[in-house]
Design goal:
Length: 453
């Protein structure tokens, strides 16, 4: 009996020590606490997934010496559902702080359904009790299988998962990364989402009214636009009529303070900040509030959006096609001037740049950035911008970005396409940048810029 008892105790200790709750359980616990806990805070950061993945409320709270909570939810919108939850979480004390991360989607008709908040709000009583009060105990006794337990004990690494999350249950922030970041990953799905919705003027006015109410009650209300990536921002502004300057202007007029972000941030999937950028953003927000460097009024020169490429380039080439003689199309709808580069039914490939790579190698270039404007009318256009690095007749890097994921038909849109320089590049290779237009539809290109960093 003693032997069995000792064996049981040993198994219990091993199980408790090496069992780890999975992310799905931790997320349930985190969001349940956001909705159902009665704990109040002096500082609340609210918004959609760009907030709950993109801001550490603990960092901001510690910098400002205030108890804080990240009140972000998936696909959240700013309406009464969100406002009531903010009111529930905020201590009724003048000088307490509300920080709103206003993404374009958070003001759309689709977002104000606030399905995520409502689903968590409708959890069964027993689920709320489990996630709210028993979770810490249950995390100790996580069910697991012997193989997983063996791997944990002997530090055997599991099969790599590109998506890495650190879920801070009490804080409400999920630090997120891809092991192999891809800032173009979300473009296709976001185009589909944005095609079917619009920014709601009624929602915007409701937000401004609520800001006015909070300010009249003595709360300090700050707003900012959560960074994502240059192409996602262009897509959103093309499709849902989001105007950064007007949003900031209305926010300030309602009594709020606007935080203009100046740092450089990177996204792991194109929409959400990686964990390092989320930490940097949190410090920037806290410092703007502490140092009072937020905007209380706007001028035409006020910076509203973050600059994703603030670095000094080692090489910069701009072609607006105005001085070209042959093969170019003169039109009154050019993005600038009168001449554009035309890709039409007669061609499948349109060259933009062709050069040896000796400059890249000799100057230790690490990144290449194409920045250009594109116009098309046919919704079935499949045109892509392509980077192609050729070594001894073989491509060592070939990658393309479909411009229709970013630009709306019958509109000039700004497309930025960045790639890292491959490690195996040599000075005798060739760099080609071109448009591949397999559908042979008409595509116009203007103001082509290549920068090297």
């Amino acid at each position: 009996i003693l032997t069995l008892l000792l064996a049981f105790i040993a198994c219990l200790i091993i199980g408790v020590s090496f069992s780890v709750p999975d992310n799905e359980e931790l997320l349930k616990q985190m969001f349940t606490r956001k909705v159902h806990s009665n704990k109040e805070y002096g500082l609340v950061v609210a918004g959609d997934s760009r907030v709950y993945r993109g801001v550490s409320s603990n960092i901001i709270g510690k910098e400002l010496n205030m108890a804080s909570l990240n009140l972000g939810f998936s696909s959240a919108g700013f309406n009464k559902t969100m406002f009531d939850l903010i009111d529930k979480k905020l201590k009724d004390k003048p000088g307490n702080i509300i920080i709103l991360g206003i993404s374009p989607f958070s003001l759309t008709n689709q977002a104000i359904g606030n399905g995520h908040i409502k689903r968590v709000g409708n959890l069964k009583t027993e689920e709320v009790i489990e996630y709210l009060y028993l979770s810490k105990l249950m995390n100790i006794f996580v069910p697991t299988d012997p193989i997983k337990l063996w791997d944990n004990i002997f530090k055997k690494k599991p099969a790599p998962n590109n998506y890495v999350q650190k879920i801070n249950v009490d804080e409400g922030w999920v630090a997120s990364d891809y092991l192999q970041p891809n800032q173009y990953h979300a473009l296709k799905s976001y185009k589909k989402t944005m095609t079917g919705t619009q920014v709601s003027e009624k929602t915007i006015e409701g937000l401004y009214d609520k800001i006015g109410d909070w300010v009249s009650e003595g709360y300090l209300v700050y707003g900012y636009i959560p960074p994502s990536s240059a192409d996602i921002e262009e897509l959103e502004r093309q499709y849902v009529s989001f105007n950064d300057y007007d949003i900031a202007k209305g926010f300030i007029r309602a009594g709020g303070k606007w935080i203009s972000l100046k740092d450089n941030y990177t996204s792991f999937d194109g929409s959400h900040l990686d964990s390092t950028s989320a930490v940097n953003l949190s410090y920037e927000i806290a410092n703007a509030i502490k140092s009072k460097t937020y905007l209380s009024s706007l001028s035409k020169n006020s910076i509203i959006r973050v600059n994703y490429y603030p670095f000094q380039s080692k090489y910069d080439s701009l072609n607006n096609f105005e001085n070209e003689m042959d093969g170019f199309f003169v039109t009154d709808i050019a993005h600038s001037g009168n001449a554009v580069l035309l890709c039409d039914s007669s061609m499948e490939y349109l060259g933009l740049f062709n050069s040896k790579t000796d400059y890249i190698v000799n100057n230790k270039i690490e990144k290449l950035l194409v920045d250009l404007y594109v116009y098309y009318e046919d919704e079935n256009t499949s045109a892509k911008i392509v980077f192609d690095i050729i070594q001894n007749g073989t491509s060592i890097l070939w990658t393309g970005l479909q411009v229709t994921y970013i630009v709306k038909p019958k509109n000039w849109g700004n497309v930025k396409f960045e790639i890292p320089v491959p490690e195996n590049i040599t000075s005798n290779d060739k760099l080609k940048i071109y448009i591949i237009n397999s559908g042979k539809t008409q595509v116009l290109v203007d103001d082509f810029r290549l920068s090297m960093y």
